[in-house]
Inverse folding.
């Protein structure tokens, strides 16, 4: 028991004595290489804190951090709470802390480990943001293609395209000048549901290595034609009078909880899809500007995949025509004239023979009586 406890200590003492300095070379590979990662991630905005983690073995007694393949360690840390990892924290990310990091650990039994794989730490927010746009539209039919163009007024070296939550390295492309701007055009497609999402682009520059611009505006790529088309209907109907209260409803299978309505977009992909949670689109009291061809799409909450467009629904707004007004007015005027004539006659009769007016009113007016009498 005592012997077993003493042996590693002795080994460690021997090793510590022997391995100072040239240890890396002499004992490389003796212990398995550690893994290295960045928390919250390998891209950090300038001024933000972050931590580089190095995970080796439970036997490790010290961890070293190396930067840019320099042989002298940048930092040294003891394992945290006797766990098998150590954290190197950077309080504020800057152009100087960006770079390629590696780590290694020492254990009493096996000496120095090999160095980890390199971890590239990029600092963002160093140059002005580029702008990202989609051509022909950010709404793309499944199977179609789209070009995402990232451009900047400032000299960019390489442009990067990143998808939010996307796995794998960012796509990158050498910049070109176009109409006085620096730009790169990434083609995406043929599209399927997994291409839908939020994209941003960045560029690096020759000023400092591993320093990137601010992120571009986010671009939401929506993919249509992923699900079966819904159907669109109108209440009270598709032929309504100007001023009527019109509501459109997008009906689809169960499980869909996002709906979008488009107007007069033809069969090409619409320029925009504004999703809402209700399948009802109240248009309120409509006017002639509401007339046109509508289509709707259904999708899922927090997803960028949509159904095919519904069959088109033509909404016709009928204004009460000037002819209708004329006829209506003629009837009204005719009615008014008739009443005047009748009143006039009654008055005339009343003046002729006082007391008969009351009788006539009591009996109700009989049109045949005056005809008999006066014509
Ligand atoms: C390490 O110790 C700190 C407090 O000293 C504690 O908050 C943390 O949870 C511990 N970590 C592990 C992995 O045990
Ligand atoms: C999309 O691009 C691919 C090549 O990248 C091409 O084969 C395909 O025909 C294109 N699809 C459409 C709809 O243009
Ligand atoms: C979408 O297309 C990519 C290739 O562009 C492919 O790797 C992926 O498996 C496809 N996803 C689906 C859901 O079909
Ligand atoms: C920009 O990034 C590309 C690709 O990662 C790299 O080849 C290039 O050297 C970088 N430019 C600078 C100035 O660091
Ligand atoms: C239109 O009708 C809907 C019901 O169909 C009703 O909820 C809404 O309040 C009406 N709007 C107006 C402006 O009358
Ligand atoms: C959509 O998802 C978000 C986040 O998961 C949730 O808060 C929201 O209630 C969802 N909306 C609907 C209508 O399901």
């Amino acid at each position: 028991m005592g012997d077993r406890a003493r042996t590693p200590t002795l080994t460690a003492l021997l090793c510590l004595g022997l391995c100072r300095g040239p240890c890396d070379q002499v004992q490389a590979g003796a212990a398995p290489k550690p893994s290295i990662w960045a928390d919250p991630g390998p891209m950090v905005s300038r001024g933000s804190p972050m931590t580089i983690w190095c995970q080796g073995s439970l036997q490790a007694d010290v961890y070293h951090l190396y930067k840019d393949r320099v042989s002298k360690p940048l930092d040294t840390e003891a394992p945290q709470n006797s766990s098998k990892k150590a954290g190197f924290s950077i309080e504020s990310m800057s152009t100087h802390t960006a770079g390629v990091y590696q780590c290694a650990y020492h254990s009493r039994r096996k000496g120095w480990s090999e160095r980890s794989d390199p971890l590239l730490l990029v600092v963002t927010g160093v140059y002005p943001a580029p702008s990202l746009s989609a051509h022909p539209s950010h709404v793309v039919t499944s199977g179609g293609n789209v070009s995402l163009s990232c451009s900047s007024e400032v000299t960019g070296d390489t442009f990067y395209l990143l998808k939010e939550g996307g796995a794998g390295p960012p796509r990158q492309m050498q910049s070109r000048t176009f109409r006085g701007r620096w730009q790169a055009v990434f083609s995406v497609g043929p599209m399927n549901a997994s291409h839908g999402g939020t994209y941003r682009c960045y560029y690096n520059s020759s000023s400092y290595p591993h320093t990137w611009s601010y992120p571009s505006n986010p671009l939401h790529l929506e993919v249509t034609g992923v699900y079966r088309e819904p159907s669109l209907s109108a209440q009270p109907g598709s032929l309504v009078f100007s001023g009527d209260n019109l509501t459109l409803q997008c009906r689809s299978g169960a499980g869909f909880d996002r709906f979008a309505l488009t107007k007069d977009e033809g069969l090409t992909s619409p320029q925009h899809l504004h999703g809402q949670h209700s399948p009802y689109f109240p248009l309120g009291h409509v006017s002639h500007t509401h007339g046109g061809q509508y289509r709707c799409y259904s999708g899922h909450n927090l997803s960028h995949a949509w159904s095919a467009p519904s069959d088109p629904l033509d909404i016709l707004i009928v204004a009460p025509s000037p002819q209708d007004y004329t006829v209506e007015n003629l009837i009204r005027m005719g009615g008014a004239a008739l009443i005047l004539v009748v009143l006039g006659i009654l008055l005339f009769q009343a003046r002729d023979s006082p007391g008969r007016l009351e009788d006539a009113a009591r009996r109700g007016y009989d049109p045949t009586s005056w005809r008999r009498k006066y014509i």
Remarks:
- Residues 333-374 form one domain.
- The first strand starts at residue 35 and ends at 39.
- The chain has four domains: 8-124, 128-223, 228-318, 333-374.
- Helices lie at 2-18, 23-27, 322-352, 356-363, 367-374.
